[in-house]
Amino acid sequence: MELKVRKWGNSSGLTIPKVMLETLGLGIGDKLEVTLKDGKIVMEKPEQKKERLTFDELFEGYSGESFKTELQEFEPMGEEKW
To answer: Which residue in 7, 49, 16, 19 sits closest to 34, CA to CA?
Structure first.
């Protein structure tokens, strides 16, 4: 399908046909992930991100090394409750 690049304010834009949006399950206000691959513009529906990770997902790839950090103390700068 051939689309025409049009002026859109100070930018340029494409109008995506309704049938393409419906096929992807997209509507007005939804987001697309846009990348350049091998000189081509690729638009994809973003992957759904989980709101919370499981314990195993949080520590995936962690090798068990310990962290050595110094304790830092700060003076309150406003009305913080420490």
So the answer is: 16
Do β-strands 6-8 and 40-44 pair in parallel, antiparallel, or remain unpaired? unpaired
Residue-wise pLDDT for 26-70, tens only, equals 889 998 889 999 999 998 888 776 678 888 888 888 888 877 778
Rounded Cα gap, residues 33 and 45, in angstroms: 6
Please name each of the domains of the chain with its CATH number: 6-46 (2.10.260.10)
> What's the DSSP call for residue 9?
T
> What is the model's pTM?
0.47
43, containing H or E segment: strand 40-44
